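Notes from the 1:1 (GR / supervisor)

We went over the backlog. Supervisor wanted to see one worked example end to end before approving the batch request, so GR pasted a single chain during the call. The sequence is below; no edits were made to it. Supervisor asked that the structure be written out right there so they could see what the output format looks like.
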Amino acid sequence: MKNVFGALALIATGAVAHAEGNLASDATRLPDMEIDSAELTLSVNEFELETGKYYRWSIVHDGGEEFQIVAPDLFRNSWINQVVVNDLEVQPYGLYAIEFDDEGQIDVWFVPIRPGNYDFWIAGYQDRGLAGTFVVR
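Structure output shown during the call:
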């Protein structure tokens, strides 16, 4: 009964969430994040996002070393539409990490659904500067 009153209160105040159209169209392209394995740097280490907005995150690796990009909290709190590798699409149910065995580009298309600060890092290199944060409002 308490849930019914809560729902009625939301409706009465106009605080009901509402989305029109396809959230997974016209993705906002984030700046490419380039991984420099020689210098151990990321070209971008902070991204500011909005909940309910569709994004395309392109990760470019120079191939110098095998790297695994880990972002479990971001992926757990986002709807992942697809991951694209060499023009091949994968529609995953969930995602924990992305791994590069060689040079290339991987695109992750997603919609963040919960605000927060979500860290990402390259496994084994986070203390050497290969880490960053997604700030989702």
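Supervisor's comment: The chain has a mean pLDDT of 86.
Batch request approved.
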